[in-house]
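We store amino acids, tokens; thus:
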Amino acid sequence: MLFSHAMPGRARVFFPRLLACLVLVLGSFIAHAPASFAQTGTVTGLPIPRFVTTRSNPVNVRVGPGTRYDIAWNFLVSGVPVEIIAEFDTWRKIRDVDGMEGWVHQNLLVGNRAGYAAPLLANGEVSMFVSRSDTARVRARLAPGARMNINECDGNWCAVAAGPPGERASFSGFVRQEEIWGVYPDEVFD
């Protein structure tokens, strides 16, 4: 029973405490909620945030969602991985690897996955292995910031292809998921 007629002052003390407990419980639930409770875009219904790549070059990144807004900067090459963090009509707010944010028209983005080598150790390299194992043979060593195409991830390892900039040759192999900017921890896709 929440109300007590015999002690009306008790009810006034009880409700703020109950409300505080509910806020703590709900806050903890939301903070530890599974990915299925992730926010979805108001326009597309797709998860927010999510990673995509630039479709063409150059790509104008604007300070607001529309052509009337100033251009903040440009991507001069296609295939640059970016993170969509918001949607408005046909515009997507993106964040790049450096944390810079701006707005891009949806037609300038594509769902292909790419990422950058992000070594866990400062000034280190990212090892690309021939199979999904730390004990497997190393196929290549990627410098910090090296771009790679991401084919699939299983939550721990990603199948990737990377090569020297400007060259057609590439190496295929597996990189620890935690060492790639362009995928989320434990994200699974193929």
Summary: The CA atoms of residues 95 and 101 lie 4 Å apart.
